[in-house]
Design brief:
4 strands; Multidrug-efflux Transporter Regulator, Chain: A, Domain 2; 67% helix; Transcriptional regulator, MerR family; two-stranded antiparallel sheet
Length: 168
């Protein structure tokens, strides 16, 4: 005789059907770390009512246009029931969500700046290699090594003179 006190566990297919999404959607949110279902002995995903409620929150927030990073931050905070019976975040929770999102943006800004510096370095290297390639291709085309070296020295002197002018 089954125990009526045990929670109902749904397979990924049944949970997806109940939430009106595809099984792949549920697996995607699990891959992103938003939900962690239990597993059967055969390693099948099993979802309880708490998992379904969490999925419902995720789906509502996605429908409102929130990013997965924002949703992840929101899921860390509990909802509180208002006098009208609606679930909302407290001001304290909203402040914590705001701080978490701001911290993520600051981190991304730092990454962007780092990538910009790296891009600038790579562009400089590309320019230098293009000059080297041009020299070798012109030598292969039969141009005089002495003349090409004279041109490279003149170009280098011109660059140095130009960079001194911009530093002043």
């Amino acid at each position: 005789m089954p125990n009526d006190d045990s929670p109902t566990l749904l397979t990924v297919r049944d949970a997806a059907e109940r939430l009106n999404v595809t099984p792949r959607t549920l697996k995607y949110y699990e891959e992103r770390g938003l939900v962690t279902p239990s597993r059967s002995e055969g390693r099948y995903r099993l979802y309880d009512e708490d998992d379904l409620e969490r999925f419902s929150r995720i789906l509502r927030l996605r429908a409102l246009g929130f990013s997965l990073a924002g949703i992840t931050e929101m899921l860390k905070r509990p909802l509180e029931t208002t006098e009208g019976g609606r679930n909302r975040y407290s001001m304290d929770s909203l402040q914590q969500i705001r701080d978490g999102l701001a911290q993520q943006i600051e981190s991304l800004d730092a990454r962007i700046e780092s990538v910009r510096r790296e891009l600038k370095e790579v562009q400089k290297l590309k320019s230098e290699l293009a000059d080297d390639l041009n020299y070798v291709e012109r030598r292969l085309a039969g141009e005089s090594a002495d003349e090409l070296i004279r041109q490279r020295r003149a170009a280098a002197a011109s660059k140095r003179a130009g960079s001194k002018g911009t530093k002043a």
